[in-house]
Amino acid sequence: MILAITSGEPAGVGPELCAALVQRDWPARLVVIGDRQLIAERVHAVAPDVPVLDYAPGAAPTPGSLEVLHVPLAVPAVAGRLDAANGRYVLDVLDRAIAGCKSGEFAGMVTAPVHKGIICEAGVPFSGHTEYLAEATATPLVVMMLVGGGLRVALATTHLPLKDVPAAITRPLLTDTLRILHADLSQRFSLPAPRILVAGLNPHAGEGGHMGTEEIEVITPVLDALRAEGMKLIGPLPADTLFVPHTLQQGDAVLAMYHDQGLPVLKHASFGGGVNVTLGLPIVRTSVDHGTALDLAGTGRADPGSLFAAIELAIAMAGGRP
User: Fold this and answer.
1) Residues marked as binding?
2) What's the pLDDT at 322?
3) Which residues are annotated as a binding site for a divalent metal cation?
4) How many C-alpha atoms does 34 have within 13 Å on its Cβ side?
5) Of 41, 133, 164, 168, whose CB has the highest number of CB atoms within 10 Å?
């Protein structure tokens, strides 16, 4: 099994986090995608003895080395200093990993963080990995889920302004989202009958219509219809009490209605060791749960815990272990 590791924003911590990969014996072959010279410089700054070698598909990997599939930078990168000239490079790295996953060269991909703003400044509209991967694989709908701290939290909507969330939560969207979540929990996470806790949109899950009607008009009808198909769905539940231990014990995953409803809780429980997973894709994709950490880039102090967790989960999702 070969996994592609995209090195992310060249000014961020992604390239040097790759140096930590040699600290473990992985049950898969890991190939870092990015500019060879950049990665070698960052790796040798924190681990001078680690050999950085070109990826050779037909050759056996050298133990203790880091394999790199070269994608050239547009301009030299400086740690901690963003440069829009390299915005397209970041997407070239992603494109190579996606192509390898689609062709079967790679069993999955693990992504280091990118900087959305600098890619947009390069003239490429970019709202995030999740949306980009959906378009690149012609997937009509994908679902973002974060895993960590004993939690699995998926999102009905992702990178939307809060004012746009209620209109975005429609019966078709919720139906498709829950079907994707249920299918991937069953197939990728070995949960044949997953129990899903579903949050309401409004405070107190609408308080019987006194604090909003989305629960009555949209969420509950969808849950009732899918329960009739055999899904185990609990909700809609007030988000402020959904994440208490007693309630969490009743489910295998949570579906939150919007980004900042579910993710603050998960990141509090697991920051530094959480994993971002894209569900619904024809390929396996996991990612770190943190950003580019420009202030840490080049210092050698970046924590590889989330990258390690993302690789472990990608291996498991790809069938590399029970």
Assistant:
1) 129-130, 159, 204, 259, 267, 276, 285
2) 37
3) 159, 204, 259
4) 35
5) 133
